[in-house]
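Anyone opening a protein record will find just a pair of labelled lines. A complete record is shown below as an example:
=====
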Amino acid sequence: MRSTAMAYGKVFQNSFSRKTADLSLTAPTGIRTISWSLRPALKLVPLLFLSALLAVFGILSPVHSFKAGQRNEPSSHDVITRATIDMFISRYSGMLDFSAQMGGKKVSQWITEGVLDAEGLDETDAQDQETGTYLNHFHVPDVTRSSNGENGLKSGVDALEWVFGDNQSNRFRWKEAVHDYRLEGNRHQGFYALGHCLHVLQDMAAPPNVRQDSYGIDSPFDAYSATKGSVPVPPDVTLPPTGDPRELMEILSGFTNAGFFSTNTTRRSLDWSFPHPHPLREEIEISGDRRYRTLKARDLAGREYRLARVSILRSHTGSTDLSNPSVPHVLSADVMEDYYNILSVEAVRYGCVLIRDFINYATVVLEQVGAGDITTSTITLRWQKNIDPDFLSYSVFRSVDGVAYTLRTTITDQNTVSWTDSMLPGNSIFRYRVNVKFRSDNVQGVSNIVSARTGTAGDSGPPSPTMVSALDDITLEIQFNEPVARDGAENTDNYFITGGTFPVTPLHGSLGDDGRTLTLTTTSMHEGDAYLIRIQGIMDLSGNVMTVSSTLQFTGVDPPKVMSAQALSSEAIEVLFSEAITTASAQSVGNYVIYPYIGVEGATLETGGGRVRLKSSRQSPGIRYTLTVENITDLNGHVIGTGNSASFQGGF
């Protein structure tokens, strides 16, 4: 998908034949792209002449320059990417920390910048502007793209080959992304390259990109998608299976190709050979002197959606058959709404799995050690299978002090995903990591580090909580008198909170590496209210379970919150907080991040202590930005919670 017209005057002719594909896909959802209505080649001559003339005077240019890190137009890619990251966090908690800092930015920023830069929105991306890498974002299922232009795309490489092949001109292909991730100190570059790959996957959920449509300025799908600020992801949506990232893109592109129109492929008079989606039924509406017929189709999940809207004069008695060239087919806003609601979700679902496959290609992820994996003398490790076909071996390392690691075993069976360390002393903490070796890549993949404590021989008493305190309005910290089993401690059913102005519900538990400290996320608590928390069912590492509940008291706190953000000019933003905040935290520019990314160059706390004026680098008019704030402290010493953000529109 591309928000700028990069290919004025190009005609993409199609003589493809498409095989019937067996697509085992569930509900889909959208993205944006731009297509341009095809006309017979001779009719393009005046337009080509006009385009060339306008380009001479700088009115129209096939390649625009962009300020680094700024957007000239809204893009659905950023919306899709944010939704993908949110889904990944909710489905694979602990597998990847998107807030981790590396190379001066968060992981989420590196991935998102890669996605957006693949769209050619960075003026420093000479590769895209000089060689037209956007032409490599097209893939027609079961058809091999030519590189000599015979299929209408001059020097274009098939999108899947561009991502997964060995084309040396693509420095952000899958293989390079995985290699960069494995390199110590270069992991952020791997995430940036992953963003480029993720962009192409999102394009596979855009009809023009999988139906060889022309790429100009009037795609209704692109125009509609650009207006959306979110993706309607159902809470119970399922995810595709993992294992083959190329196959992921192939299946997604096949689904989009088979079930949705792009602008040019509704023009049967041009003798396109693409099969049309099969209409299930039609609904007739009459408005004024026109009769409207909405054609309905059904996806593989059994949902009906609007496929196209046919508009004919009331006096017209012709057929609505899509093969009839006299019938104008309209991809109207209501049709695009259904397209987006299906295709954007598919892009998120498949993007989420692509990120998971990326981690499992590059290395392995060690799972947290559960109570059932610990005895007084053994610790059992489990990890997710590495799926790189180039796999050679797993190497398990152990450390006592967290600094020096010694090799414990080497495993050459790729399907072996567990190992038990034995003859360990009781009541002792050990740390582990797994390195993955590959045949052709001399750089190893290094896993995360997990720690576990062996049980204590002769321990017959159950654990007990010793202290609970509110860290902010949605976070509690609970201390136990001894290390406890992770699965029971993180089970929110073992905690009951009463008291306070409003009911409070535990949502998520996370046990620290010491095995004694639990962080419990809850619904909102009210500052100053007294609460009671009842704890039960927690087990220690020797298997002793709390059979009698324990009740502790704590007081709610309410840290500052971001209430709103507003652009005062193209370089000034006013941020409103829920209460007065400290000058030191308010005026630290590192506490503010603006996305799409523009710099924060200054921060001034205004009189009253609850408003901050930010000086930013130049904003793009009309672009929707999101400001995220962290480490802000109120006058009572309470620190702002995570996820505090506000949106604003770029100033003029």
In short: Residues 333-362 form the longest helix (30 residues). The domain at 41-262+347-356 is CATH 1.10.575 (P1 Nuclease). Residues 581 and 634 are 4 Å apart (CA to CA). The chain has a mean pLDDT of 78.
